[in-house]
Structure formats: C-alpha cells, structure tokens
Design a protein that fits this description.
Blueprint (H helix, E strand, L loop, with lengths): L4 H7 L5 H17 L4 E3 L2 E4 L9 H6 L1 H10 L13 E4 L9 H4 L3 H15 L3 E2 L20 E2 L2 H11 L8 H10 L1 E3 L13 E9 L2 H15 L4 E7 L4 H14 L17 H5 L6 E5 L1 H11 L9 E4 L6 H11 L9 E5 L2 H10 L1 H7 L3 E3 L4 H4 L8 E4 L2 H11 L2 E4 L2 H10 L8
Parallel strand pairs: 2-3, 2-5, 3-4, 7-8, 7-9, 10-11, 10-13, 11-12, 13-14
Antiparallel strand pairs: 1-6
Helix pairs in contact: 1-2, 2-8, 4-8, 7-10, 9-10, 9-12, 10-17, 13-15, 13-18
Length: 424
C-alpha cells in the first residue's frame, strides 16, 4: 500500500510502540483486502473492554496487555496512549448497575469497571450501546468511519450516509490510535451503488413490519445493496433501526437505499448510479408471512422471558413500554427486561419511565443485551421479543425458543405469561 510520510513515521516507531503496532496491523489488513492506501478517519466505534471470563488471565497482566492482544493483535505488550481520534465503546457484556440480575459475578463486574476506567482515561467514550447514533455519535454524510456492530454499520452507511465497513476489535483498535483505516469497500463511491430493486407491494408501517421486511430481504440479497420502493410509511429512526438490524442478521446487508429518504438516493436511478439491476424482487403478503413464520421458532406458548430493546430502545420506545405497563403487573412466572443506552436510561429515570416499568415488575437495563452477554434469567425456555435480530440469534446462542411480535404483543405476553400474538 502507498503510505503518507506521517503514516510511515507511525509505522517506523517515531510516534511510539503502540502506533507502530497499529500501523503494522493496518498495513497487513489493507494488503490482504487489496486496498491501495489508507483513509483518514476521526470516528471509531469498537470494543475496548474486558467483560468476559476468558480475558481474566490477560487482565492479570494489566489492561495494556488486554489492548495489545485483543485490539492490536500483538503478543508484545505496548503501553496504550490516548486515542488519536474520537472513539467510542459499543455494547458490552455487563450492565454496570444490574449485573447481579443478569447472573454475573461481582468480580467480573468489577473487572469491567476497572477496564472502563482504564480505557476512559485514554479517550474511549463509554457509550456502551449498539446504537451510538442515539447518544451523540452522529457522523455526517461522506464521513469516513471505522465501526463495528452490524446494525450500527448498516445505519451509518444507509441512514446517515457516512462510510464504514464492518470492522473488528483489531482494526478499530488500530484505527483509534492512528486515525487511519484501509480505503476499500464502502469507503469507495463505486461500491455504494445499489444492486437489487425491491418493490414493496403492501404497507410497511409499524416497527414489527419494518423488522419483517428487513428479515425477508436479508435472506434474499445476503450482502448485496437493495434499493426499496413502494408503500414504506414514515421511515423514521426507530423503524430504520429495526429494519437494518433485521436485514444484517438474516443476511449481511451493510447498506441499502430508500429513494427520497436516504442520503445517496434522491431517486432509483441515483441509487444504482448506472449499475445494471441484478434482480427485481417483490415483497407482498406471502413474503411477509414467510418472514414471520421463519422468526417464530417456538411452539410452547408459556412465556418465561420478554426482551425488548435490540437494537437498544430510543427514549420514545421506553415511554411506549412504560405507558403500556402503567397500572398493570407482569406475570409472576415471567421476567421482562427493557434495554436502552445508559445515557437514555438516565433520561428515562428522570422522566419516571423506569419507575413505571419497575412498578409493573420489569427491569430497565443498559450497556448490554442477552445475545451479547449470553445471560438470561435462570430456567428460561421460551422468549418473546419485538426484535427480529434477537429472535434470530437467541435460539442459536442460548438454545431457547423465540416468539417475535409487536411491542404490544410482547407486553401482553409479559402480563399474561403466555404468547397470544398473531400476524394481522
């Protein structure tokens, strides 16, 4: 790859051992990808934490060792300097306030807190959410980023019009110290053009329907770039958040276009940018039902656990749940966990939403989710969720069965202790 003089200086150690290791990693990474150069970035979202039992041996050597091995792919322990660019921590495995409810040991929770203190002092912003754009990290159109987390990546590319590939712990760790990432994939104009045309023939309006559309679409197009037309009603933040998360779970969608809504597609023609249409797909009632049936793998209607908030809930979603629960009580055999970013949990607490949910018997959690933490309430066999992503991953990760439905369906399941949701 071609390197600038500044990049060469970082590589040869003139800016310290950590940046030299980071540049070595980026050089190897970029060459493997076929990138011709690096591109500057001032926006990194990755995983800079120590929240799993498997890293205890590394933690015993110090958090410099944790970063060196996990974020720089380096067996040599280097002293970690301050981050060179705006860097944030994505979702973690532990809720720093509710770890005991998760079933996590005190010593592991303390390990994470010590890790956060270490990385925070070096400039990692502890947003601790899969939706950094909901709590202040909002890149602008055309901005080059280095983000992990599939649902965040597809939102970044498609809704915000910023540019990122799906990065990993190592590449984001290196980018945070150097402000560089390989210039390839979705950083290039050519690779952001649509491949498939999708004609939506039925109204897609509420969160559940956007999730179903995304889940069906991901299975069909995999990692291609669809452009959608038709009856897409009010494609607001919450709906596009669930749509992208579903499409990146059933497939590998990292970008899509909605003409007139997303930044790089004022029209279908602009979305394709002269590229021929690889295929035209049609979404109707039969496709909607197929997605619903694929997501609902459960047969037992007794609900042990209701999970809401994947991707993490916005404040208006927390309010919706609280309002549906007000004056009611969750079934004694059912647990309800509501997940939202830490910053928004504080807002929900101030607004009284947390109290409303807790008075009903629910718990409001931050920083994590069951799929990331691998922790559910004890004895759970059947889960209900409003998240296509969670319904896709939880059965494979934890062995539970899942029901997928609307927020109202899930709240009613929590109250009744049974699943009565249907596809209208």
């Amino acid at each position: 790859m071609r390197l600038t003089d500044h990049e060469k200086a970082m590589l040869d150690g003139s800016h310290g051992a950590a940046k030299a290791r980071a540049m070595d990693l980026l050089l190897r990474y970029g060459e493997a990808l076929g990138a011709e150069r690096l591109v500057e970035t001032n926006n990194v979202a990755g995983a800079f934490n120590a929240s799993t039992p498997s890293v205890r041996a590394l933690v015993a050597k110090g958090f410099d060792a944790v970063y060196s091995e996990l974020n720089l792919d380096s067996t040599e322990v280097v002293e970690v300097p301050r981050m060179a660019v705006n860097t944030c921590q994505l979702i973690t495995g532990i809720d720093n306030a509710k770890w005991r409810i998760q079933g996590i040991s005190d010593d592991l929770a303390e390990q994470q807190k010590r890790g956060e203190a270490f990385f925070g002092r070096r400039g990692v912003n502890m947003h601790a959410t899969c939706t950094p754009y909901q709590v202040g990290n909002v890149p602008v159109k055309g901005e080059h980023c280095a983000w992990m987390e599939s649902s965040a990546v597809v939102y970044c590319n498609s809704v915000l019009g910023a540019r990122t590939n799906t990065e990993g712990k190592e590449s984001t760790g290196a980018a945070a110290l150097t402000g560089r990432i390989p210039y390839w994939g979705f950083h290039l104009d050519l690779n952001r053009r649509a491949t498939h045309l999708v004609e939506v023939g039925i109204p897609v309006e509420d969160i559940m329907d956007w999730g179903l559309l995304g889940y069906w679409l991901g299975e069909i197009v995999q990692d291609e770039i669809p452009v959608l037309t038709g009856a897409l009603v009010n494609p607001a933040l919450i709906k596009l958040k669930h749509f992208g998360a579903a499409a990146s779970s059933s497939g590998g969608v990292e970008m899509y276009h909605l003409p007139g809504t997303t930044p790089e597609a004022r029209s279908v023609e602009e979305a394709f940018g002269g590229r021929p249409i690889a295929d035209t797909l049609r979404y109707g009632s039969a496709e909607r039902r197929r997605a619903y049936e694929n997501l609902n793998c459960a047969s037992e209607r007794k609900i042990d656990f209701v999970m809401l908030g994947c991707p993490h809930n916005s404040i208006e979603q927390v309010w919706l749940i609280a309002s549906l629960l007000e004056g009611r009580r969750i079934h004694s055999d059912t647990a309800l966990w509501v997940h939202t970013p830490r910053a928004l949990r504080d807002t929900a607490e101030r607004n009284g939403y947390v109290r409303m949910i807790e008075e009903a018997g629910g718990v409001v959690m931050s920083d994590t989710c069951p799929a990331i933490s691998r922790h559910l309430p004890k004895g759970v066999r059947t889960v209900a969720t409003d998240s296509a992503k969670q319904a896709h991953y939880l059965p494979a990760i934890t062995g539970v069965a899942a029901w997928f439905g609307s927020v109202r369906d899930c709240v009613e399941a929590a109250i009744a202790g049974t699943w009565n949701g249907t596809l209208q």
